[in-house]
Amino acid sequence: HKLRKKWKYLRDQFCVELGKIAAGKESQWAQYNSLTFLTDVVKPRQLRQSASMRDSADDDDNSTPNDVSRYQMMTQTVDPLADDSVDPLADYSVDPLADESHNFSGPSRKRFVDGELKPPESSTTDSKVDLFEKVMKKADLETDDDDMLFFRSLLPYVSKIEEHKKLRFRSKILRVVDEFAYSVDTTASDSTVT
Protein backbone atom coordinates (compact mmCIF):
# COMPACT_ATOMS: atom_id res chain seq x y z
CA HIS A 1 0.00 0.00 0.00
CA LYS A 2 2.83 2.41 0.89
CA LEU A 3 4.67 1.54 -2.30
CA ARG A 4 1.58 2.32 -4.32
CA LYS A 5 1.24 5.74 -2.64
CA LYS A 6 4.90 6.54 -3.25
CA TRP A 7 4.61 5.46 -6.87
CA LYS A 8 1.53 7.65 -7.36
CA TYR A 9 3.32 10.64 -5.84
CA LEU A 10 6.34 10.15 -8.09
CA ARG A 11 4.15 9.75 -11.16
CA ASP A 12 2.07 12.84 -10.32
CA GLN A 13 5.15 14.93 -9.63
CA PHE A 14 6.63 13.78 -12.93
CA CYS A 15 3.45 14.96 -14.68
CA VAL A 16 3.86 18.40 -13.09
CA GLU A 17 7.51 18.56 -14.11
CA LEU A 18 6.62 17.42 -17.63
CA GLY A 19 4.13 20.28 -17.76
CA LYS A 20 6.91 22.70 -16.82
CA ILE A 21 9.05 21.40 -19.66
CA ALA A 22 6.14 21.77 -22.10
CA ALA A 23 5.67 25.38 -20.91
CA GLY A 24 9.32 26.14 -21.65
CA LYS A 25 10.61 26.01 -18.09
CA GLU A 26 13.40 23.82 -16.81
CA SER A 27 12.74 21.06 -14.28
CA GLN A 28 14.77 21.24 -11.07
CA TRP A 29 13.38 17.96 -9.69
CA ALA A 30 16.14 15.42 -9.05
CA GLN A 31 14.10 12.36 -10.11
CA TYR A 32 12.91 13.81 -13.41
CA ASN A 33 15.61 12.17 -15.55
CA SER A 34 15.08 8.82 -13.83
CA LEU A 35 11.37 8.84 -14.68
CA THR A 36 11.54 9.95 -18.32
CA PHE A 37 10.38 6.48 -19.34
CA LEU A 38 6.90 7.64 -18.27
CA THR A 39 6.62 10.24 -21.05
CA ASP A 40 4.67 7.83 -23.27
CA VAL A 41 2.35 6.80 -20.45
CA VAL A 42 1.39 10.11 -18.84
CA LYS A 43 0.15 13.43 -20.15
CA PRO A 44 1.82 16.64 -19.00
CA ARG A 45 -0.16 18.70 -16.54
CA GLN A 46 -0.56 22.34 -17.33
CA LEU A 47 0.86 24.74 -14.83
CA ARG A 48 -1.76 26.19 -12.56
CA GLN A 49 -2.28 29.89 -12.72
CA SER A 50 -2.79 32.06 -9.69
CA ALA A 51 -6.38 32.91 -8.71
CA SER A 52 -6.16 36.48 -10.01
CA MET A 53 -4.91 35.33 -13.41
CA ARG A 54 -7.71 32.75 -13.62
CA ASP A 55 -10.33 35.38 -12.75
CA SER A 56 -9.08 37.68 -15.49
CA ALA A 57 -8.99 34.80 -17.94
CA ASP A 58 -12.56 33.90 -17.01
CA ASP A 59 -13.63 37.49 -17.67
CA ASP A 60 -11.96 37.56 -21.07
CA ASP A 61 -13.49 34.41 -22.49
CA ASN A 62 -16.72 32.80 -21.57
CA SER A 63 -15.75 29.46 -20.09
CA THR A 64 -18.26 26.72 -20.46
CA PRO A 65 -18.60 23.41 -18.67
CA ASN A 66 -17.01 21.86 -21.77
CA ASP A 67 -13.87 23.91 -21.17
CA VAL A 68 -13.73 22.76 -17.56
CA SER A 69 -14.13 19.12 -18.48
CA ARG A 70 -11.51 19.51 -21.22
CA TYR A 71 -9.11 20.99 -18.64
CA GLN A 72 -9.81 18.09 -16.28
CA MET A 73 -9.14 15.60 -19.06
CA MET A 74 -5.85 17.30 -19.87
CA THR A 75 -4.69 17.18 -16.26
CA GLN A 76 -5.53 13.52 -15.77
CA THR A 77 -2.89 10.88 -16.21
CA VAL A 78 -3.22 7.46 -17.63
CA ASP A 79 -3.21 5.35 -14.48
CA PRO A 80 -1.34 2.09 -15.07
CA LEU A 81 -2.14 1.03 -11.49
CA ALA A 82 -5.89 1.28 -12.03
CA ASP A 83 -5.84 -2.14 -13.67
CA ASP A 84 -4.79 -4.59 -10.97
CA SER A 85 -3.84 -7.23 -13.52
CA VAL A 86 -0.93 -5.09 -14.75
CA ASP A 87 2.09 -4.87 -12.49
CA PRO A 88 4.26 -1.89 -13.53
CA LEU A 89 7.06 -3.02 -11.25
CA ALA A 90 7.18 -6.60 -12.50
CA ASP A 91 10.29 -5.98 -14.60
CA TYR A 92 12.20 -4.41 -11.74
CA SER A 93 13.85 -6.32 -8.94
CA VAL A 94 14.28 -4.79 -5.51
CA ASP A 95 17.54 -5.37 -3.67
CA PRO A 96 16.73 -5.40 0.07
CA LEU A 97 20.36 -4.57 0.93
CA ALA A 98 20.66 -1.67 -1.51
CA ASP A 99 19.31 1.01 0.81
CA GLU A 100 20.64 0.53 4.31
CA SER A 101 19.72 4.05 5.46
CA HIS A 102 16.29 2.95 6.70
CA ASN A 103 15.85 2.36 10.40
CA PHE A 104 13.68 -0.63 11.04
CA SER A 105 11.84 -0.62 14.34
CA GLY A 106 10.72 -4.23 14.48
CA PRO A 107 12.33 -7.60 13.97
CA SER A 108 12.97 -8.60 10.40
CA ARG A 109 10.75 -11.31 9.00
CA LYS A 110 13.20 -12.14 6.25
CA ARG A 111 16.01 -14.55 6.98
CA PHE A 112 19.43 -14.02 5.46
CA VAL A 113 21.86 -16.92 5.34
CA ASP A 114 25.31 -16.19 3.95
CA GLY A 115 24.03 -12.95 2.43
CA GLU A 116 21.21 -14.66 0.55
CA LEU A 117 17.52 -14.37 1.26
CA LYS A 118 16.12 -17.70 2.37
CA PRO A 119 12.45 -18.44 3.00
CA PRO A 120 11.69 -19.06 6.67
CA GLU A 121 10.86 -22.72 6.08
CA SER A 122 14.26 -23.38 4.48
CA SER A 123 15.97 -23.48 7.87
CA THR A 124 13.60 -26.20 9.07
CA THR A 125 13.95 -28.01 5.77
CA ASP A 126 17.74 -27.88 6.09
CA SER A 127 17.61 -29.22 9.64
CA LYS A 128 15.26 -32.02 8.55
CA VAL A 129 17.62 -32.96 5.73
CA ASP A 130 20.58 -32.96 8.15
CA LEU A 131 18.67 -35.11 10.63
CA PHE A 132 17.65 -37.54 7.89
CA GLU A 133 21.26 -37.83 6.72
CA LYS A 134 22.44 -38.53 10.28
CA VAL A 135 19.79 -41.21 10.79
CA MET A 136 20.66 -42.84 7.49
CA LYS A 137 24.37 -42.77 8.29
CA LYS A 138 23.68 -44.30 11.71
CA ALA A 139 21.44 -46.94 10.14
CA ASP A 140 24.18 -47.80 7.65
CA LEU A 141 26.68 -48.23 10.49
CA GLU A 142 24.26 -50.39 12.45
CA THR A 143 23.43 -52.65 9.52
CA ASP A 144 27.12 -53.34 9.01
CA ASP A 145 27.60 -54.39 12.65
CA ASP A 146 26.77 -58.09 13.18
CA ASP A 147 26.56 -57.69 16.95
CA MET A 148 23.99 -54.93 16.65
CA LEU A 149 21.97 -57.03 14.23
CA PHE A 150 22.06 -59.93 16.70
CA PHE A 151 20.78 -57.80 19.58
CA ARG A 152 18.12 -56.26 17.38
CA SER A 153 16.94 -59.74 16.47
CA LEU A 154 16.44 -60.45 20.19
CA LEU A 155 14.30 -57.34 20.81
CA PRO A 156 10.92 -58.89 19.91
CA TYR A 157 11.55 -61.67 22.43
CA VAL A 158 12.89 -59.34 25.13
CA SER A 159 9.80 -57.16 24.84
CA LYS A 160 7.67 -60.24 25.67
CA ILE A 161 9.42 -60.69 29.04
CA GLU A 162 7.31 -59.50 31.95
CA GLU A 163 8.46 -56.28 33.65
CA HIS A 164 9.24 -57.90 37.01
CA LYS A 165 11.52 -60.47 35.28
CA LYS A 166 13.42 -57.99 33.07
CA LEU A 167 15.80 -56.93 35.84
CA ARG A 168 16.90 -60.56 36.37
CA PHE A 169 17.20 -61.04 32.60
CA ARG A 170 19.41 -57.96 32.26
CA SER A 171 21.64 -58.99 35.14
CA LYS A 172 22.13 -62.46 33.61
CA ILE A 173 22.98 -60.89 30.24
CA LEU A 174 25.52 -58.63 31.94
CA ARG A 175 27.09 -61.63 33.70
CA VAL A 176 27.35 -63.53 30.42
CA VAL A 177 28.92 -60.52 28.67
CA ASP A 178 31.32 -60.02 31.57
CA GLU A 179 32.26 -63.69 31.52
CA PHE A 180 32.99 -63.75 27.80
CA ALA A 181 34.49 -60.30 27.45
CA TYR A 182 36.69 -60.09 30.57
CA SER A 183 37.40 -63.70 31.58
CA VAL A 184 40.98 -64.98 31.26
CA ASP A 185 40.16 -68.64 30.92
CA THR A 186 37.48 -69.02 28.25
CA THR A 187 37.39 -72.83 28.24
CA ALA A 188 36.36 -73.11 31.91
CA SER A 189 33.73 -70.41 31.54
CA ASP A 190 32.19 -72.10 28.48
CA SER A 191 31.13 -75.08 30.56
CA THR A 192 29.54 -72.98 33.31
CA VAL A 193 27.06 -71.15 31.11
CA THR A 194 23.63 -72.71 31.38
3D structure, described in words:
The protein has 7 helices and 2 strands; from the N terminus they run H-H-H-E-E-H-H-H-H. The radius of gyration is 41 Å and the shape is rod-shaped. It has a two-stranded antiparallel sheet. It has helices at residues 2-22, 51-60, 65-75, 120-144, 146-158, 163-182, 186-192; strands spanning 111-113, 116-118. It has 194 residues and is mainly α. Among the domains are: 1-49 and 70-78, no CATH class; 118-184, no CATH class.
Question: What is the compact description of this entry?
Answer:
The chain is mainly alpha-helical. The chain is built from seven helices and two strands, in the order αααββαααα. 55% of the residues lie in helices and 3% in strands.
Gross morphology: rod-shaped
Q: Which class of secondary structure composition applies to the elements?
A: mainly alpha
Nearest-integer average pLDDT: 68
Helical fraction equals 55-70%
Strands, count: 2
Organism: Lygus hesperus (Western plant bug)
Keywords: Nucleus
Region (Disordered): 48-68, 98-125
Subcellular location: Nucleus
